[in-house]
């Protein structure tokens, strides 16, 4: 390895979109703007660290003015993959574009899928429809506890979600039937993710927990994480990164209980695990707690929390560390519905070794970030990863 950095720290604001993409109307998402609309709905938001890094330079956000001399390079990235989900977004950031969309089932899953699943687990199911995760456990949670029948539902994304009560059904049992579903869902029904959605509490007071797990199809090609591992670098995933990549190219997976826990785990890895490599962190609360639930004040507070954490992370970084902040899709909490939104995502690149920030413009693919990380780490990426590197302007 002969790169200009030794370690890449990638922070994904899950759903932190910055405005509708040119093809947003094809997805029913015209006019969406997650970060811009959150800031406007709150009458402006103060994010001094993000402002210093150039967030206000790459996108209009009320209260976040453009920095005269941003300390990081900044831009927006366009998604080339078909879809607007977690899997395709993360894979593309890591250099793998998904041209064929994963299947979705807004009218519920066909009988052949449900019958095979019920036979395999030895039980009927409840639900089988597109629904909000919090609403469906309100509707069917009590019946699930009484009968032991798992709740199966989906959304506009390519997901087979199974909700079960941690106490009455058991986490291990939930994970077991999710594994069964993952093995059953092969082409043409190869959904992107099977998601375990555990909850606790009593009827009328159910609450989802952070013991969710994502059972994802394996990446259909090479990613930045594969190249890093081949090059002898350590790849550590925080949050659901290990699940999203089905552990392909991931050496360690560190579960997190939301954003605040994810911040602390990331900081601990920076300070206690100095080996060259990649720390890849997904910050799920932006999406799970605030985007999908249309909680604009909550989304704003999550941005403030991250803004307050970033100075600690930046102070802990070594001279050959680089930090990249981005997102995998949008999920505008001010927009109708509860689904992801097809948006540009930000890219912010910072290192103590770089003397000034640069305007990276509009990048033609999320994969540009993965290509740039690979080049900076000294990995041979051309012909193996999609995207165009912007490493040459970071100095």
Considering DSSP H and I runs of 4 or more, what fraction of the residues is helical?
Answer: 25-40%
Number of helices: 13
Which structural category do the helix and sheet elements fall into?
alpha/beta
Residue share in β-strands: 15-25%
In the sheet with the most strands, the strands line up as: 10-9-11-1-12-13-2-14
What is shown here, in short?
This protein is globular. The chain is built from 13 helices and 14 strands. Helices cover 33% and strands 19% of the residues.
Verbal overview:
By secondary structure, this protein is of the alpha/beta class. Helix content is 33%, strand content 19%. The protein has 13 helices and 14 strands. The protein has helices at residues 34-41, 48-53, 55-58, 86-93, 111-121, 133-147, 171-184, 224-230, 241-244, 259-272, 285-291, 296-316, 367-376, and strands spanning 7-13, 73-77, 126-130, 151-154, 159-165, 193-200, 207-208, 213-216, 234-238, 252-254, 277-283, 321-326, 345-350, 359-363. The strands form 2 sheets. It has an 8-stranded mixed β-sheet, sandwiched between helices. Strands 3, 4, 5, 6, 7 and 8 form a 6-stranded mixed β-sheet that branches. α10 (259-272) packs parallel to α12 and α11 (285-291) packs antiparallel against α12 (296-316). It is globular and about 60 Å long. It starts with 6 loop residues before the first strand and ends in a 19-residue tail after the last helix. The model has no long low-confidence stretch (mean pLDDT 96).
């Amino acid at each position: 390895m002969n790169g200009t950095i030794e370690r890449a720290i990638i922070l994904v604001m899950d759903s932190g979109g910055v405005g509708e993409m040119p093809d947003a109307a094809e997805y029913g998402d015209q006019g969406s703007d997650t970060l811009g609309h959150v800031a406007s709905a709150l009458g402006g938001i103060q994010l001094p660290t993000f402002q210093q890094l150039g967030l206000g330079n790459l996108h209009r956000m009320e209260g976040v003015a453009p920095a005269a001399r941003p300390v990081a390079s900044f831009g927006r990235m366009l998604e080339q993959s078909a879809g607007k989900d977690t899997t395709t977004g993360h894979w593309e950031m890591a250099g793998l574009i998904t041209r064929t969309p994963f299947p979705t089932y807004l009218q519920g899953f066909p009988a052949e899928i449900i019958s095979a699943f019920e036979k395999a687990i030895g039980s009927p199911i409840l639900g089988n429809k597109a629904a909000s995760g919090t609403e469906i456990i309100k509707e069917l949670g009590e019946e699930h506890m009484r009968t032991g029948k798992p709740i199966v539902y989906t959304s506009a994304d390519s997901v087979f979600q199974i909700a079960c009560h941690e106490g009455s059904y058991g986490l291990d049992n939930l994970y077991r039937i999710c594994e069964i579903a993952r093995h059953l869902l092969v082409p043409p029904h190869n959904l992107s993710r099977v998601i375990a959605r555990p909850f606790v509490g009593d009827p009328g007071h159910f609450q989802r927990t952070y013991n969710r797990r994502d059972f994802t199809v394996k990446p259909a090609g090479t990613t930045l994480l594969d190249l890093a591992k081949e090059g002898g670098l350590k790849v550590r995933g925080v949050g659901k990164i290990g699940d999203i990549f089905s552990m392909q190219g991931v050496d360690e997976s560190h579960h997190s209980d939301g954003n605040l826990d994810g911040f602390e785990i990331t900081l601990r890895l920076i300070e206690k695990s100095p080996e060259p490599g990649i720390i890849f962190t997904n910050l799920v609360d932006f999406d799970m707690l605030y985007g999908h639930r249309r909680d604009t004040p909550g989304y704003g507070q999550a941005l403030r929390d991250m803004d307050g954490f970033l100075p600690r992370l930046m102070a802990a970084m070594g001279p050959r560390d680089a930090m990249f902040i981005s997102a995998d899709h949008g999920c505008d909490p001010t927009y109708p519905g509860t689904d992801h939104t097809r948006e540009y995502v930000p890219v912010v690149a910072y290192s103590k070794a770089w003397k000034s920030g640069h305007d990276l413009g509009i990048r033609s693919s999320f994969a540009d970030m993965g290509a740039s990380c690979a080049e900076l780490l000294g990995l041979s990426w051309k012909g193996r990863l999609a995207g165009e590197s912007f490493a040459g302007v970071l100095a």
